[in-house]
Structure formats: structure tokens, C-alpha cells
Amino acid sequence: QVQLVESGGGLVQPGGSLRLSCAASGSIFKVNDMGWYRQAPGKQRELVAAITKGGSTNYADSVEGRFTISRDNAKNTVYLQMNSLKPEDTAVYYCHANWDIRVGVHTASWGPGTQVTVSP
User: Among candidates 45, 104, 36, which has minimal Cα distance to 71?
Assistant: First the structure.
């Protein structure tokens, strides 16, 4: 019933920018931690950025200073602003969210993934 909907992926030249969005919908009482992961061909899925329900953030070393994660709690939406993109940022980006469907009842889900390609 609960669904994550991603948008904003695409093709961009090196040095360009993209803004990813992910909105959670369905039987949601409270959204807790949210984050972005990515997976490149032949590699494991890795954490890119995460933001807690309290607003604390953390980033992978490879994107620190270039990417910014933010959230709009009223809209149950998380964003990833990606600047100064590099070819090595090319990957499928996945949204992840933890939330409560009722008081004391927790669940989690992944988005379907969106392709980000950085190439001339």
C-alpha cells in the first residue's frame, strides 16, 4: 500500500546538476529516516546521503560538499540536490524510507530507482 515515487533522474554533462525527489504515500503515520542509495554496474549498492527525522544528515565521502539532502516533512518528501556531477556518479539512484504505519509499528521500503547518467 505504501509507495515511494522518485523523479528527477536523467542525462547530464560533467559539472552539471540534477535534483532528485522522492515522495512517500499511503498508510503513513510518521516518516522517520530517509535516504538515497546508488548502485553502479558491477558494484554493490551504497549509501549516498541520509537524513534522520530530526534533520541530521550524513554523506558518503565521495559526494561530500557536492550533494545536499533535504526533506519536507509536511509532504513526506526527500530531495537530493546533486551539483558538480562527475562521470563516476553515474548509477541507478534509489530512495529509501523508514516510517511508522501506526504508533509503534515500523516498516521500510525502497523506491524503484532512477537512472542518473553523467556523460559528455
Answer: 36
* Cα–Cα dist 41/58, whole Å: 24
Checking 38-45 for CB contacts under 8 A at 24+ apart, the result is 38/89, 38/91, 38/92, 38/93, 38/94, 38/116, 39/91, 39/92, 39/94, 39/113, 40/90, 40/91, 40/92, 43/91, 45/94
pLDDT digits (tens, 9 = 90+) for 82-111: 999 999 999 999 999 998 989 999 999 999
CB 120 within 8 A of CB 11: no
Reduce the DSSP state of residue 120 to 3 states and report it: coil
- Taking residue 45's Cβ as centre, other Cβ atoms within 10 Å add up to 15
Question: pLDDT by residue (tens digit) across 18-71?
Answer: 999 999 988 888 889 999 999 999 999 999 999 999 999 999 999 999 999 999
- Residue type present at position 9: G
